[in-house]
């Protein structure tokens, strides 16, 4: 047993989905993603049993590139997030009728494959390839199945592509530079490289460019809101639920350990930038009239907090960041799914055209409310634990950071509640068809998982703790 | 030598077949024999014929590049087959293409400057004729004329350079020239010769500021000829340029390096920026070809180690070009109108062709896991290793700019609707070449070692 089985399932499933034709595609895609999740759980079990799941075979001799996958608690957690969310996202696609279904579901699985690969790769070059090919499917998903005017969409998505592509090319430069220094892309050999502080500064910023665009950190965020609002529901979920975590994960795995001294030196600036993102996101969210854009900006605010925690270089920050990545992934997928459900009935994303849903479908409203409360980190939800840790880590860096970030969370609660009020409450304006059992399954799963881990976060903390400790010792 | 003789034999067969009224078998026989020759040359199973005072020597560099040229020519001949169905000119055009291949092979296997010049003239004259081969079309005439005038001017400069070398050393022989290039007592006009040859070759590879002919000629020529220019001719000129520099200027002075750097940056930037503004697919591919030349010129900065990188880049660029031109031929179907609008709605009408085009363009843009990505990667690591980090950043910025115009075509294929019912040239040859090229791009990307270890 080794971890590549998950990747194989996803890749083969993607091809099978495309081959199976439009009628069967959605079912095969769902089955594949569930199988991948099953394989991940099986791997998790083996991993907890102390089994070695790594893969390491030579792929290219010149330059020396290995097909190396490494499993530790951190990558396991991210893999769980990816394969766990994938079935939910695919299932949430069922409410929409896509043209050329085989292609979109195959692309979704292919993207899952690339993202899972990114979280597992233990070879810089392999990692870069996975990182980069994840961009292709989402480009096509957003371009072909997105909504809104085609010209505006084309522009928004091209901007997204160029931005992220540009950032990652600088990362490639950094990798090549490191390779010329050490003659290997292997992560442990890269960690062991002796670099002087100027080199580390350059490496730090080359990586920072790639990740700051992907996460996104202010001022590299301008692609985000437009892309989220133009992409189809499933595309937005893939982007916000999993893809932006690629950036956050990579900060932990690659950037910080490879450029430790620079990370310490620039820590105050980067943390300040991230906190600026929290405030900026929150303030801009207040003004949004389009619900997808509102969620996009609120997401910007949330990931700002996660990034601040990561760059604070404390174990609490790391831990909170990873927990928050997982919980944010779950919750944001749930929120965007709610938006899709409403869109299917009202055919609009404008908040002012919604309202009065609660009196027509209380069940849906309650599910939505729980997810919404989770997103503002109400205690007993999974998000609370992450957020608490993150704030604590900021407090250790600088009390004011924590105070500013903490205040913004109150702002977050305000705009989310106001959004809920406008969308769901009020008298009946338009008729809202009750959501069906199938439609509610995704929401129920999200609610259950969020609350479960809110009450019992220990298994996850136990899973990630050792790997985060070792990354921290690498930096110190 | 035997490869060259065999190629010329195939060319002569094409001419004879016309007389013997065997017009129908020309193309199949040419392709099959070229493929056989490809196999034999690659495995080294051809008997080595000595003669001609060893003016042609198949060293490993020459052998691998010859194989690449043979493969490209076979695919190009197949690709051009539908264009020669009606006319009676099959034998002429196919034989010209095969003779051009012989010129190309001579250009990478020469050990004598006379042989080099012979090769480049055979290649160029063949191209002049082909560029003007659509003789009732005014644009094709213009292209042929323009190419001929400019090309012969460059050949003149090249020949002048060779004469200078002869004047300085009294020899055409490569070994003598190589010795002279590193000896301290060489006459100064040797270096003038080197400069003149450099200028002539920069013209042939279409590097800025000698690239102005490329877009016009590419646009005016019949599309199947444009395919040949932008793949075979460009790659040949580049490989030959590289070989010339290894002979004449292997211990490059810093001033020469500086010139190469400036030309490289100018070529990459100019090609890319001009490509952004183009509305016609052939001009887009022409300007993108100019920028790819810029990338390939980077190999000259590490003349002793970079031949693998050149081979890799040349192969992936040429194969991506082949795939792209198959789709272009399929879409524009003998019409003069080659606006990008023609690609609107291709994904619905022919998903396979749209997919092939996507693969080709993504490879040219350098997206993993396709061949083009590795080509760029090898080049970047080469120049970073030798300390040109600024140049690497310029190259990267150029890769980003390129995404804009490649994606313009992709967007047209996938999101726009065709404004009118469009007929495509539904020939199986285009499908075959496109599929073979797309598969090659993927396979090279998955197993880059196989190609890198050839040299």
Automatic annotation (TrEMBL), chain A:
GO terms for cellular component: endomembrane system; membrane. Keywords: Membrane, Transmembrane, Transmembrane helix. One of its GO terms (biological process) is electron transport coupled proton transport. It is a multi-pass membrane protein. Its main location: membrane. InterPro entries: NADH_Q_OxRdtase_chainM/4, NADH_UbQ_OxRdtase, ND/Mrp_TM. The chain crosses the membrane at residues 6-21, 28-47, 67-91, 103-122, 128-145, 157-180, 200-222, 234-254, 266-287, 294-313, 325-343, 363-386, 398-420, 441-461. One of its GO terms (molecular function) is ubiquinone binding. Residues 123-408 form the NADH:quinone oxidoreductase/Mrp antiporter transmembrane domain. It is found in: Endomembrane system; Membrane. Coiled coil: none annotated. Pfam families: Proton_antipo_M. Belongs to the complex I subunit 4 family. NCBIfam families: NDH_I_M. This is NADH dehydrogenase subunit M. It comes from Flavobacterium urocaniciphilum.
From TrEMBL, chain B:
Keywords: Cell membrane, Membrane, NAD, Quinone, Translocase, Transmembrane, Transmembrane helix, Transport. It comes from the Bacteria. One of its GO terms (molecular function) is quinone binding. Residues 112-401 form the NADH:quinone oxidoreductase/Mrp antiporter transmembrane domain. GO terms for biological process: ATP synthesis coupled electron transport. It is found in: Cell membrane; Endomembrane system; Membrane. InterPro entries: NADH-Q_OxRdtase_suN/2, ND/Mrp_TM. GO terms for cellular component: endomembrane system; plasma membrane. It holds the Pfam family Proton_antipo_M. Its main location: membrane. The chain crosses the membrane at residues 27-49, 61-78, 98-131, 147-168, 188-207, 227-247, 253-272, 310-332, 352-375, 387-407, 428-447. It is an enzyme of class 7 (translocase). Its EC number is 7.1.1.-. It catalyses: a quinone + NADH + 5 H(+)(in) = a quinol + NAD(+) + 4 H(+)(out). It is a multi-pass membrane protein. Belongs to the complex I subunit 2 family. NDH-1 is composed of 14 different subunits. Subunits NuoA, H, J, K, L, M, N constitute the membrane sector of the complex. NCBIfam families: NDH_I_N (TIGR01770). NDH-1 shuttles electrons from NADH, via FMN and iron-sulfur (Fe-S) centers, to quinones in the respiratory chain. The immediate electron acceptor for the enzyme in this species is believed to be a menaquinone. Couples the redox reaction to proton translocation (for every two electrons transferred, four hydrogen ions are translocated across the cytoplasmic membrane), and thus conserves the redox energy in a proton gradient. HAMAP family: NDH1_NuoN_1. This is NADH-quinone oxidoreductase subunit N. It comes from Flavobacterium urocaniciphilum. The gene is nuoN.
